[in-house]
Amino acid sequence: MLLLEAGKSAIQVIPMNWYITLCAVLFGLGVLGVMFRRNAIIILMSIEFMLNAVNLLLVAFSAQRSDPNAQVFVFFIMAVAAAEVAVGLAILMMVYRNTKTTDIDFLNKLKW
Amino acid sequence: MIKLAGLIPLLPLIGFAIIGLGGKKLSKTIVSSIGCGSVLLAFALALGIFFQLHGHAQDVRVMDWIVTGNMHVDLAFLIDPLSVQFLLIITGVGFLIHVYSTGYMKDDENYDRFFAYMNLFVFFMLLLVMGNNYVMMFVGWEGVGLCSYLLIGFWFKNTAYNNAARKAFIVNRIGDLGFLLGMILIYVTFGHLDFNHVFGRASEMSHDESAVLNTIGILLFIGACGKSAQIPLYTWLPDAMAGPTPVSALIHAATMVTAGIYMIARSGVIFAQAEIASEVVAIVGLLTALFAATIGLFQNDIKKVLAYSTVSQLGYMFLGLGVGAYTGAVFHVTTHAFFKACLFLCAGSVIHAMGGEQDIRRMDGLKKALPITHLTFLIATIAIAGIPPFSGFFSKDEILSHAYDHNKLYWMLGVIGSMLTAFYMFRLYFLTFGGKFRGTHDQEHHLHESPKSMTVPLMVLAALSLVGGFIGIPLMKNGHLLDKFLRPSLDGAYSKLLEPNIIHLQHELTLMGIAVAAAAAAIYFAYSIFVKSGFLPQETEAEMSKPQRVIYNKYYVDEFYDSIIRKPLDWSSDKLYRFFELRVVDSFVNGIGTAVKWSANSVRYLQAGNVGSYIFAMVIAVIAILLIKLF
């Protein structure tokens, strides 16, 4: 509890705007990664990037406001993200086995 | 026999179909025999009908043609003296011209195409004179226009010939508009286009209603002006000389240009009630007769002289129609068909002998080399000059005496016109056949009489020009066989017009005497200039006197039309093209294309199946939503 308090106050030392800016930058990097990279694995990583940016923001807000509710969301997001990556990677593995590539421009079968 | 009338136009049509479809696969013998044979059979049928007619008029219905609402047009033929008269001319003279063509066109590579067109021409002309309503007449009317285009431009590799063909076609279209409007007005007025109905109703019309009849008459006459080459639409006819000579003969003598005469003679009932229109017909005819005759004085192309003489003679026929000499006009059509066909075919024979030379200044002295052509040409020339007892005298005299009856001035101008005709025709004759040969040595060596296939039709036509006039001997009781024959058809026209005064015998003889003396004087004048003094028309325009130059250049009418009609049209079309077409229409059309391309280009990413672009769209959409929520 004490540790938590210490952590909380440490978080609170840094102004909120900095968190927001950092998270926005992180999120934006994630978006750019998703949009412009062609390797499916890196795209998955970029998605994690965005999720983590959101997680970070939630944590920052939660500490700032001394409201633990947001922490629950963070927990959920992590769990869902893990599950998603497990499924996503599994699909990707199968795709790779069949096509020997993870290039998403090559994998344009979504149009069917 | 009369029931078989439908076969008459059908035969040349079948001929056209066989020759046209068979094309080069048929030998020349087969083409000639089908081409000539179909017309000959038609002539035989027409002759049979002629002997069975006995002055009756009969409708031969083939089938319903146009039945819509109140309009009912039959595909039906009207067989009466007037149409039979024209049938005989068209098929008879047409047959001779076909036979002549087998010789004239012998070495042409498109022999089959030529005969196919000729048969089609005859078919449409027959349709024109046989139809029992204005619609069928119009179909034939347009058909001969088409065929004249095809035949005038027969040697289509020559641009000048093609232009002549186009000119004929377009000038005719202008006249056709008049005819079409006249037809519409007839339908609006009478509710019918059948001759029987229209003339029946027209003859019952009171004098107060003559305004509409005058309008109809003038509109129809505009159509006739186009086909029959009257002022102001005559310019196509001299240019039409570009076609092969038998074509000129066919167009000028037996078909096409007589269509206008036929149409007005057929509509005689309307014209008899439309005094203003009749007066217009007479005046335009008279002016054309004089105008074309003066141009004929200075032409140096053998066919052009004949072309202007046709325009001039057609003017006489319209003068006749205008002053009420319906029989006289048809009579003149008949005799004109004989001697003009003969003249043209002689000209063809001369051109043949001269190896394509058409300038009379380089001919002369052909008397010895071409004895038959010379003699037949001389007979036809005397006939057209109006010297008795050759055929032209009788028909021209009938028109002139009616003109005298109508208006003394018309008669006087008519006599002057006939003097001019006699002068330029004999000028042509003397320059072509008299004196010494003026061509090159090669040409002189080449001179030869044409083959039998060409000279026999010439002889037949010359004989007809010689005796053809006796079907209408004036002054004698029952001497005018043609008038008696045509009476049933033209009665409606005559009953309304004042019955032409039976001019006093002595009076009539004086008139004849004056006309013949005038023609003879003109011939003597031509003789003294071109034979005695050996005068030769100047080679270049620079040597001519000013009025001569104006006439030589046909009064610059073509140039006049060019500057007031063609040039402004060209100019405005060019401007419209540059501004409206290129800027407005093109940019609009191209704009639509560009817009579609652009939008397709932008939307196609939605369908590409490309993950990146889907995500991109998603991100853009999210940002857009956020922005909307924000503001």
Task: Describe the model.
- The complex is a heterodimer of chains A (112) and B (631).
- Chain A has helices at residues 2-13, 16-36, 40-65, 69-99.
- Chain A has 112 residues and is mainly alpha-helical.
- Chain B is built from 25 helices and two strands.
- Chain B has helices at 7-22, 28-53, 81-104, 111-130, 134-152, 159-190, 195-204, 210-227, 236-239, 245-254, 258-266, 268-273, 275-296, 302-322, 326-353, 371-385, 391-406, 408-433, 441-446, 452-467, 481-496, 505-532, 546-552, 557-603, 611-630, and strands at 58-68, 71-79.
- The termini of chain B are far apart.
- The mean pLDDT of chain B is 85.
- The interface between A and B is medium-sized, with 14 and 10 residues.
Order of helices and strands of chain B: HHEEHHHHHHHHHHHHHHHHHHHHHHH
Strand content of chain A: under 5%
Relative helix content of chain A: over 70%
| Gross morphology of chain A | elongated
| CA(first)-CA(last) distance of chain B | 97 Å
Per DSSP, the total helix count of chain A is 4
Instruction: Please give the largest β-sheet of chain B.
Output: 2 strands, antiparallel
Low-confidence parts of chain B lasting 5 or more residues at pLDDT below 50? Answer: none
Radius of gyration of chain B: 29 Å
- What would you call the quaternary organization? heterodimer
Task: Looking at this protein, list some descriptive labels.
heterodimer; A: 112 residues; mainly alpha; 4 helices; elongated; B: 631 residues; two-stranded antiparallel sheet; 25 helices; 73% helix; globular
Summarize the structure.
The complex is a heterodimer of chains A (112) and B (631). Chain A has 112 residues and is an all-alpha fold. Chain A has helices spanning 2-13, 16-36, 40-65, 69-99.
Write the topology of this structure.
The complex is a heterodimer of chains A (112) and B (631).
Chain A: H1 2-13, H2 16-36, H3 40-65, H4 69-99
Chain B: H1 7-22, H2 28-53, E1 58-68, E2 71-79, H3 81-104, H4 111-130, H5 134-152, H6 159-190, H7 195-204, H8 210-227, H9 236-239, H10 245-254, H11 258-266, H12 268-273, H13 275-296, H14 302-322, H15 326-353, H16 371-385, H17 391-406, H18 408-433, H19 441-446, H20 452-467, H21 481-496, H22 505-532, H23 546-552, H24 557-603, H25 611-630
Antiparallel strand pairs in B: 1-2
